[in-house]
């Protein structure tokens, strides 16, 4: 809770942390941006959305430089939010160039959060594309590979967690995460059905929901402790996952 309050203390973030209609972002971003444009008034759009959508490779590279600089600074500064000036300097740009694409530093952080959320489907899809495990040991190795990939995403972006928590804990902003959550649950379900094609879709989705919620909640707890505690919690979650899904997979 203290982390959420710290993020929402920023004036511009406070403006849309509970006072505006919900955002809706699809997995690819485009459908969500159209939904935002339809549902929000002009003032709110200015506060929430990037000012300029990159249409050329050069513009995309500028946006990437801005986001990369912001991510590096959040990692270096911990709980302190980097200023727009600091982001511009780290990116090698003028402040005016940054403002061409983002109205404020909070919009930059929200864009980083969206990118963080969108990184999970790819690592889950990797497990669906490999040959189907035929026994418990093979499946356990696949789970371990998934945990290595997803843990690196959490650890490398630990300083973004206050933004993620603010999104999760706010009814108006929660739809940003909900769209990705549904995609992740569906992918977990698809992975389980890849392992056991006879598994009912309804059961697979229920298991996927538990896998996602337990994994995320426990990792957030672990990130607020030391690295050794985080690793121990990771091992505990992996054990819980295996105990949860193994009875449904018909593995030797």
Features:
252 residues; mainly alpha
Fold and architecture overview:
- The chain has 252 residues and is an all-alpha fold.
- The chain has helices at residues 2-8, 11-15, 30-39, 42-48, 57-77, 84-91, 95-101, 105-118, 120-129, 136-156, 161-168, 174-195, 201-223, 227-245.
- The protein is 72% helix and 0% strand.
- The longest helix has 23 residues, at 201-223.
- The chain is elongated, with a radius of gyration of 20 Å.
- It starts with a helix and ends in a 7-residue tail after the last helix.
- 30% of the residues are buried.
- Mean pLDDT is 79; it is low at 1-48.
Calculate Rg over CA atoms.
20 Å
Number of strands: 0
Helical region count? 14
Structural class: mainly alpha
* Overall spatial form: elongated
Tell me the strand percentage band.
under 5%
Q: What is the rounded distance between the termini?
A: 44 Å
Helix content estimate? over 70%
Main sheet overview:
none
Please, what is the average pLDDT? 79
User: Are there runs of 5+ residues with pLDDT below 50, and where?
Assistant: 1-48
- Order of secondary-structure elements: HHHHHHHHHHHHHH
Topology:
Blueprint: H1 2-8, H2 11-15, H3 30-39, H4 42-48, H5 57-77, H6 84-91, H7 95-101, H8 105-118, H9 120-129, H10 136-156, H11 161-168, H12 174-195, H13 201-223, H14 227-245
């Amino acid at each position: 809770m203290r982390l959420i309050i710290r993020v929402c203390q920023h004036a511009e973030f406070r403006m849309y942390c509970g006072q505006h209609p919900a955002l809706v972002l699809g997995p690819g971003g485009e459908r969500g941006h159209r939904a935002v444009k339809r549902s929000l008034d002009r003032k709110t759009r200015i506060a929430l959305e990037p000012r300029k959508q990159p249409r050329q490779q050069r513009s995309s590279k500028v946006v990437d430089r801005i986001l990369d600089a912001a991510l590096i600074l959040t990692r270096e500064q911990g709980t302190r939010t980097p200023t727009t000036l600091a982001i511009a300097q780290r990116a090698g740009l003028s402040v005016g160039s940054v403002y061409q694409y983002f109205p404020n530093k909070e919009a930059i952080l929200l864009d980083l959060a969206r990118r963080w959320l969108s990184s999970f489907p790819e690592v889950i899809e990797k497990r669906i594309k490999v040959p189907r495990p035929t026994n418990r040991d093979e499946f356990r190795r696949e789970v371990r590979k998934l945990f290595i990939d997803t843990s690196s995403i959490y650890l490398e972006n630990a300083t973004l967690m206050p933004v993620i928590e603010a999104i999760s804990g706010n009814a108006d902003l929660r739809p940003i995460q909900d769209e990705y959550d549904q995609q992740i649950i569906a992918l977990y379900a698809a992975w389980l059905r890849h392992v056991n094609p006879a598994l009912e879709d309804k059961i697979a989705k229920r298991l996927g929901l538990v896998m996602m919620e337990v994994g995320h909640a426990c990792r957030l707890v672990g990130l607020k402790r030391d690295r050794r505690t985080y690793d121990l919690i990771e091992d505990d979650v992996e054990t819980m996952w295996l105990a949860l899904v193994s009875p449904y997979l018909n593995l030797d």
